[in-house]
Design a protein that fits this description.
The chain is α/β, with parallel strands linked by helices and 324 residues long. 40% of the residues lie in helices and 15% in strands. An eight-stranded parallel β-barrel has the order 1-4-5-6-7-8-9-10, surrounded by eight helices. The relative contact order is 0.13. It binds ligand PBG. It holds the Pfam family ALAD.
């Protein structure tokens, strides 16, 4: 009789037949920072902190020491610096360029990824520039994103990661980076970023929710799958180095589909709402946080993600150290 259970009989055999590994080397830790000297717990995201520069450098060092190869930065910008033209996004003395420089000085081998989008700097809270009628201006936004990316590149970023979903931005960013000889700086593109209810806690952390309307003219409709394949083909043709699907769990089919059509590495973003669903259920004593987080992240890898952006990155690294 054919008995699949033979391959599950002992932990040793299960290890031999295991198809998917989740290790710290696959994880990217998103980190929030702000201008102040204090490290502020984020009310909307238990377990996460809005770091000062000094706190950020220390936290990134701890993550790196745990085997996490990369971090991605998200700045909380003072309301007084937010404008409709978003100039603070490419201020060479701004929070992000100073953070990149401090991180690279303290941890030269840590990969520093920066988010390229205007929402933290935008008086309107949108990822793109907005005209008087509330219309998102695609092509002027792409020019602004290029200025922002160059600012990050000059400060020493390793990878820039456009999360804005404007058309044509990957090609424009590649050309802008190359024009200043930043030919070695990679682009990790948010390829299929859906208009999701899962971003609420993140927007609370940065106070970056759109002041009017929603993001549905640029972020994708959760109902669409073929459209994600189209975005993937475009980003690949425009020169992206890594493609991303976001959020992760409700879109594992999208991850799997994109895996079938591109040779590029894939990232998935297990976003703030996904993290909080686990945290909230665990805080109520309703589920086992460690088991559920590990199962979710392993499933994201199985579906096709090479790397995962997750607020659980340090926890996972610690859990793996204590019980490999
Ligand atoms: C915005 C951005 C968002 C996230 C990353 N970059 C939110 C949004 O699009 O409104 C969400 C990440 C998360 O929820 O963890 N450029």
């Amino acid at each position: 009789m054919i008995r699949p259970r033979r391959n599950r009989r002992t932990e040793s055999i299960r290890g031999l037949v295991r198809e998917t590994e989740l290790t710290a080397s696959h994880l990217i830790l998103p980190l929030f920072l702000h201008e102040g000297d204090d490290d502020q717990p984020i009310a909307s995201m238990p377990g996460c902190t809005r770091w000062s520069l000094a706190g950020l450098v220390k936290e990134a060092g701890e993550a790196h020491a745990l085997g996490i190869p990369a971090i991605v930065l998200f700045p909380a910008i003072a309301e007084s610096l937010k404008t409709r033209a978003c100039e603070e996004a490419w201020n060479p003395d701004g929070l992000i360029p100073r953070a990149i420089a401090a991180l690279k000085a303290a941890h030269p081998r840590l990969t520093v990824i920066t988010d390229v989008a205007l929402d933290p700097y935008n008086a309107d809270g949108h990822d793109g520039l907005v005209d008087d009628n509330g219309i998102i201006l695609n092509d002027p936004t792409v020019i602004a994103l290029c200025q922002q990316a160059l600012c990050h590149a000059r400060a020493g970023a390793d990878i820039i990661s456009p999360s804005d979903m404007m058309d044509g931005r990957v090609a424009a960013l590649r050309a802008a980076l190359d024009s200043e000889n930043f030919t070695d700086i990679s682009i990790m593109s948010y390829t299929a970023k859906y208009a999701s209810a899962c971003y609420g806690p993140f927007r609370g952390a940065l106070d970056s929710a759109p002041k009017f309307g929603d993001k549905k003219t640029y972020q994708m409709d959760p109902a669409n799958g073929r459209e994600a394949e189209r975005e993937a083909r475009l980003d690949e043709a425009e020169g992206a180095d890594i493609l991303m699907v976001k959020p992760a769990l409700p879109y594992l089919d999208i991850l799997y589909r994109i895996r079938q059509i591109t040779p590029l590495p894939l990232a998935a973003y297990h976003v703030s709402g996904e993290y909080l669903m686990v945290k909230a259920a665990a805080a109520s004593g309703w589920i086992d946080e460690k088991k559920l987080a590990m199962e979710q992240l392993t499933s994201i890898r199985r579906a096709g993600a090479d790397m995962i952006l997750t607020y659980f990155a340090k926890d996972v690294a610690r859990w793996l150290q204590s019980s490999p």
